[in-house]
Write a structure and sequence with these properties.
single chain; 295 residues; 13-stranded mixed β-sheet; 9 helices; 13 strands
């Protein structure tokens, strides 16, 4: 498949096959060919014939989040993702998988369909065009750990998320992740991330941040790897150590008191810790787009 612009790792678009999991009710609202990519293979979660693929998709979630202690039960997939929202991802036909990959996914005998190597799940919120990101999964790390891969999978997570947001028609995006999560390096590719929470007891992981941004084509293209796009990023005012719970709670109190902050750029690894940059957003909003500078 090809895009309407060049990206950093074109192998992802020439070798992998896109798919979308959506009900017949939601499918007409989706763009199954985002940015001119090859039309996505449609998986209908209400049909019996989709069960083998959805079982493998559940395996992908376990490979990604099982080590973190947050694998998703199958009922959550259906109740919270496949029915109300949509899933977009990239994969390979089973007959193109190398032996280590087939073993990793525990493919059933005779399965000849697509094997998902990545997925992005989002759920629509009450306001039209506003979506909440539920799950970003990539088999890249697990496949590299299992042995040499036959395909260059660099950037698979960010490309998948960027195409997914375009497929879903997202205008304003919200998501939640942990300060220590490697996914934060992907999320900042979309530009500065407005912080809604820095310490979140409502989540099972208190060290969770809630972030958002207004979606534009430039942000999506930048996240996918279009080097012709340069996003505006405010300067860093201070750094938060991702293991410093007291600093997270202090930042949460400042947010609740009315101050506004963004994560402007990628975290840094320093002395075995991850340090996350924080920028203070003045009342002018720093040109970050509607809704990102004030309530």
């Amino acid at each position: 498949m090809s895009l309407s612009f060049a990206i950093r790792n074109p192998t992802l678009m020439t070798e992998l096959v896109p798919y979308v999991v959506a009900t017949p009710f939601n499918l007409p609202l989706l763009d199954v060919q985002p940015f001119g990519a090859q039309p996505a293979q449609v998986i209908d979660p209400t049909r019996l014939s989709s069960a083998p693929f959805l079982d493998i998709l559940h395996r992908l979630d376990g490979l990604t989040f099982g080590p973190e202690g947050m694998p998703m039960p199958k009922w959550v997939f259906y109740d919270c993702a496949e029915m109300p929202g949509a899933i977009y991802g990239l994969g390979l036909p089973a007959n193109r998988l190398w032996p280590a990959a087939r073993e990793l996914f525990a493919l059933p005998d005779g399965y000849e369909g697509i094997v998902p190597l990545s997925m992005y799940i989002a759920i629509p919120m009450q306001t039209r065009g506003v979506w909440f990101g539920h799950n970003l999964a990539s088999a890249g790390p697990a496949l590299r750990a299992a042995g040499p891969t036959d395909i260059d999978l660099r950037g698979l997570g960010s490309v998948t998320k960027g195409l997914a947001l375009r497929c879903f028609g997202v205008k304003t995006f919200w998501g939640a992740t942990q300060w220590l999560s490697k996914a934060l390096f992907i999320h900042v590719k979309f530009g500065p991330l407005r912080l809604a929470t820095a310490w979140t007891p409502a989540h099972s992981e208190n060290e969770t941040l809630t972030y958002g941004f207004d979606v534009t084509d430039d942000k999506l293209r930048a996240s996918i790897g279009d080097r012709s796009i340069t996003l505006e990023r405010p300067p860093v005012d201070f750094w938060l150590d991702s293991s410093d719970k007291a600093a997270m709670q202090a930042l949460q109190h400042r947010i609740e008191a009315g101050e506004r902050f963004v994560i402007p750029s990628a975290p840094r690894h320093e002395a075995g810790d991850v340090r996350v940059p924080i920028a203070v957003v003045p009342s002018s909003g720093h040109g970050l787009g509607p809704g990102l500078g004030s309530e």
